[in-house]
Amino acid sequence: MSSANKGVGKVEVTLKWDPSAAGAPDRDLDIIAAVYRVEEPHGAPAYLVHFGSRSPDGTITLQRESSTGQGFGFDEAMTLELNRLSPAYGRVLVGVAIQQGGGRTTFGDIDNALVLVKEGYQELDRYDFADLGDATAVTVVEFLRDGTGGWGWRRAVRGFDADPQAFTALMGAEPA
């Protein structure tokens, strides 16, 4: 993490995509946050926030959830209040998974998918999935607690060929 990426507090991750063509099955993308304990940053997550859930302490919430991509602007929005997260947690990883109920769907099958990471009005990052078209799930951003207790962030794009449930178990593992 560079010094330009330090000191985030309250972050919003938003997701949008175009709806399916008329007559085609709906495509459902979901934002997923995995929270890891300081002593186990790459093991199993302490907890997950996804599909309309929220963190046990209310610091991570999914405000908007779409199952079709219909609407104006961003279809899903997750707020992460990192500055309020317990010191027991040192890593938060955010990804996007495609529900696979209508058959295997990849990001290459979805038009105009875009994830945006921002703090207040400042855009931190945006990612359009173009280089991971064969993936069914992708990690996009990682937030890490630094030595002073503050939070930094970095782009953490990594594709997976997994359904959402399997993705939540795989997403936080150290890259091979």
Automatic annotation (TrEMBL):
Pfam family, one: TerD
Superkingdom of the organism of origin: Bacteria
Database matches in InterPro entries: Stress/Tellurium_Resist (IPR051324), TerD (IPR003325)
Domain TerD: residue ranges: 3-161
Family: Belongs to the CAPAB/TerDEXZ family.
Protein name listed in UniProt: TerD-family protein
